Amino acid sequence: MPAPRMVVGWFGRENRFRALLEAQGHDIVELSSPAAAVDCEALVIATSQAQIEGIVEALEPHIRRGQIVIHTSIGLGVQVLDPVEVHGALAMAIAHVGADRWVVTTSDELAQGIAEVLLFESAQVSMPKTDAERVELAPKIAYAQMVRQLARAAHRDLKELLDEQAVPSEQELGEFLAPRFEISDIYAAFQSITDPGFRKAFVEAARRVGELEHNMELEMWGLQEELR
């Protein structure tokens, strides 16, 4: 049985989760003020990881019991939504991690069931994870994205130097479909890495991506971390 159609208040950027909700017929409303949240059955926070805590605090006075509150960052779990959960919200952290796979962390079994229904309606696969597991996943996904960018750049360089027929097509390299991390999310993901070898590889990849994309901020961050 399809889930009831909802008015969904939206904070932040468009992403694949929004596209799924729109395809299911939910009414998406851009919210510029937390006070407007009272008119929505569900709220989605799709900002950078660094902004989520502030938005949750601003929403707290306006939450109604039974409202659904979702954030879409892989680097944070459901605990960041505690301030709204204590007011009766159903808290969920739902992050796209590639293809039709979504990592889901919820406050309770009812919230878990609702999250699974929302994803199931769009033929998506829900993968329950704890807050701690999400923290581990975030840097690995960010690293996979950066390495994929470097592989594409290396592939383009080969095509310029060699006969195109001698170079595998880019499709053969595979595709990583998780949404790209913002720079602030890359920094946050790095902070959770404890393995020294992985920290070094992560920083080197970030610096090189910054160089290739002429992103001075990311390149300088990578250089500074390499010198620590």
Automatic annotation (TrEMBL):
Gene3D superfamilies: 1.10.1040.40, NAD(P)-binding Rossmann-like Domain. Residues 130-225 form the CGL2689-like C-terminal domain. Residues 27-94 form the Putative oxidoreductase/dehydrogenase Rossmann-like domain. InterPro entries: CGL2689-like_C (IPR054507), NAD(P)-bd_dom_sf (IPR036291), OxRdtase/DH_put_Rossmann_dom (IPR019665). Pfam families: 6PGD_like, Rossmann-like. This is Uncharacterized protein. It comes from Corynebacterium stationis.
